[in-house]
Amino acid sequence: MFKKILIANRGEIALRIIRVCREMGIKSVAVYSEADRLSLHVKFADEAVCIGPASSKESYLHIPRIIAAAEITNADAIHPGYGFLSERAQFAEICGSSGLKFIGPSPEAITAMGDKSLAKDTMRKAGVPVVPGSDGVVKDIKEGQEIAEGIGYPVMIKASAGGGGKGMRIVNEASDFEKAFQMASNEAGAAFGNPEVYIEKFVDQPRHIEIQVFGDRFGNVIHLNERDCTVQRRHQKLIEESPSPIVDDALREKMGAAAIKGATSVHYEGAGTIEFLVDKDKNFYFMEMNTRIQVEHPVTELVTGIDLIKLQLQMAAGERLRKKQYKPHGHAIECRINAEDPEHDFRPSPGLITSFHLPGGFGVRCDTQCYAGYAVPSHYDSLIAKLVVHGATRDEAIRKMSSALEEFTVEGIHTTIPFHRRVMKNDVFRDGKYDTGFIERHYHKS
According to the model, what pLDDT value does residue 380 have? Predict the structure, then answer.
């Protein structure tokens, strides 16, 4: 096992990793930007190194500074968390060449699954169902129009190198294709430095279901059931739960087997998530693979009883997976609490938190880096807390989440807590009969 791990991240995920390190007797090193000087991950790590100014490009995305921090503190491994450099194959390669264990999959696996069109082709060859669409990237508008006509409208134009809703456009009619193609390509180029896009059939009213997988260096791969991430706004997840209200044992077995097949095909090691779209007839299609730990990993932890961060470290250290089925026990729901104003189109709301009270009770968990007096910076993602509950049934979990949200107090900034309170009372959500258009159709400010 490692003696000292540098955490190349910030916020609640950095704290989460620090706590596991402490439990396992591993020293931790935090890195931080000047904007995060007073963050809790800096306080609770065994060591902390400032790696630059507030800008991500000059700090959390600056590979030489992170490697230098690992070298001067004598770390022997780097955990990338999620976001930032976590899915950058080049970073994993540099860690290896610098004598540092990258806690994640191989650079080859990251590359194979990081490019969305390449990942789709890889999954197709492995026998995993994929959404009908282009074979790889589309070279120009004319080719794109021909492909769209062939598979039929509506279609989705998606950034090959991207995610998070950037470089993505839905096209309902042929007359809209050229403009949408140009917009998606331009946005992809600006966001990811790669303007390439691919096309796939738009699945109407889908569910977004993902399968948590783990692999070891001996070729063993397991899945830890599904998470339902269907409640989204502009392709950004807001609420996650497990098990999914629409997934029965038969569908879980099929999706789990497909996820294992896909991960095995790229010799996957560590934590990963294979994401699927599921249509109203319960046909499922591969969408993408995230080659890292997910924001919503606590949902799986609560229904399986497995510490996924600890399992990451064990796999990276060369331990062997126990191959068994992990059936979900009870029901877990996570609400992402963001520093945003839901009454004004979820606009960012950074600033000083003047009062901060966390909910508690049996089956209530909150992962956060915040406290009263903490200033939420404007330079990074708006996530300030993950509120997660576990109940014996979905109804119990919803009631528990409603109670916890009422108790959760954050003053000084706007947050998405009022929005989540309304969703928990929404009959469509409570019935479990929602799709990815739920927010657009059912969320009202009044």
Answer: 96
- The greatest distance separating any two alpha carbons of the chain, rounded to the nearest whole angstrom, comes to 61
Residue 195: which CATH number?
3.30.1490.20
**Residues 299, 332: contact at Cβ < 8 Å?**
yes
Q: How many domains does the chain have?
A: 3
Q: CA 306 to CA 302: how far, in whole Å? A: 8
Q: How far is CA 407 from the centre of its chain?
A: 26
The enclosing domain of 409 has a CATH number of 3.30.470.20
Over the stretch 94-143, which tens digit does the pLDDT of each residue have? 999 999 999 999 999 999 998 877 898 899 999 999 988 898 899 999 99
Q: Which H or E run contains 146?
A: helix 141-151
Would you say residue 18 lies in a domain? yes
**82 & 150 share domain:** no
Marked catalytic residue, from 227, 292, 336, 365: 292
Q: What is the pLDDT of residue 446?
A: 37
Q: Which tokens belong to 274?
A: 């294979």
Query: What pLDDT is attached to residue 118?
Result: 85
* pLDDT band (50, 70, 90) for residue 406: very high
Q: Are the C-beta atoms of residues 158 and 180 closer than 8 Å to each other?
A: no
Whole-model pTM?
A: 0.89
Active site residue 292: yes
Question: What letter would DSSP give residue 203?
Answer: P
Domain boundary among 185, 201, 217: 201
Range of the domain at 50: 4-103
331 close to 377: Cβ distance less than 8 angstroms = no
Clarify whether residues 360 and 232 are in a common domain: yes
Do residues 224 and 212 lie in contact, with contact meaning Cβ atoms separated by under 8 Å? yes
Let me know whether 20 and 137 are in one domain: no
